[in-house]
Amino acid sequence: MRLRFLGTGTSFGVPVIGCGCATCTSADPRDRRLRHGALLEDGERRLLVDAPPELRLQLLDARVDRIDAVWITHCHADHVHGIDDLRAFTVRPPRQLDVWAPAECARVLRVRFDYIFDDSIQPEAGTSKPELRLHELPAEGIVDLGGLRLVPVPVRHGRSTPVGFRCGALGYITDAKTIPAASLERLAGVRVLVLNALWHGNPHPTHLNVEEAVELARSIGAERTLLTHLTHRLRHAALAAALPAGIEPAYDGLVIDIQD
Question: How far is 1 from 148, CA to CA, in rounded Å?
């Protein structure tokens, strides 16, 4: 199984518009962070995680020409506002693409992108729209995406409940402040963990900071933890040097192989 980080930034991305800080002006390409997105590959199956505003650029950079399904963690703009870019996968050849989202997010998607999900709204002759088949993620059980078997892992993020997942030895969480006990049980025994971490110190009301993420990673006990959803307050090299063994910052374009 292979995981590719398409974007490891927060809603502002890095560099931040109008900012001249050391991270935003860094020459280190690992300090360039597009909004959150990832690609999970297992054999012939490809799962896209989230559809951020820069999705088209991310997919071009990674030379992705096919995906089989999409997992939307939650409906904040930095995770879904690239959804129209999925049209490229449904027009050549014409096909429908399965999109999975938490129930609360699915309700938002149907309204916010009604031109996609309302069958009564059809594109004008000679034009197209993304042909997406929307499914609500179950609260428990297994979602089988043609061989990719994922266990939903709900987390708390302010007023919303994003849904990460476990797939074999991989646990994947983004935009979490706390993880309920039942979800922690679903992550027990993962060897690789992806976890969000905003910045050092100054606790945020809806996101983990670095210190909280490290503590949580230690409690889960994965062999390798990769931090994502990072702000411009964190320079990659400095963060990597400060983190304990087994925990490291991810960066855009990072590819890791995961053995079960």
Answer: 10
**Contact present, 166 and 141 (Cβ < 8 Å):** no
Distance CA 28, CA 102 (A): 36
- Residue 248 and residue 108: Cα distance in Å, rounded? 34
Residue 121: helix, strand or coil by DSSP? coil
CB 156 within 8 A of CB 177: yes
- The model carries a pTM of 0.96
Three-class secondary structure of residue 186 per DSSP: helix
Q: Which two tokens stand for residue 204?
A: 């945020």
Span 171-221, pLDDT tens digits: 999 999 999 999 999 999 999 999 999 999 999 999 999 999 999 999 999
Cis previous bond, 205, omega within 30: no
The pLDDT score that the predictor gives to residue 67 is 96
Task: Please name the residue that has the structure tokens 């870019």.
Answer: 85
| Predicted confidence band of residue 10 (pLDDT cuts 50, 70, 90) | very high
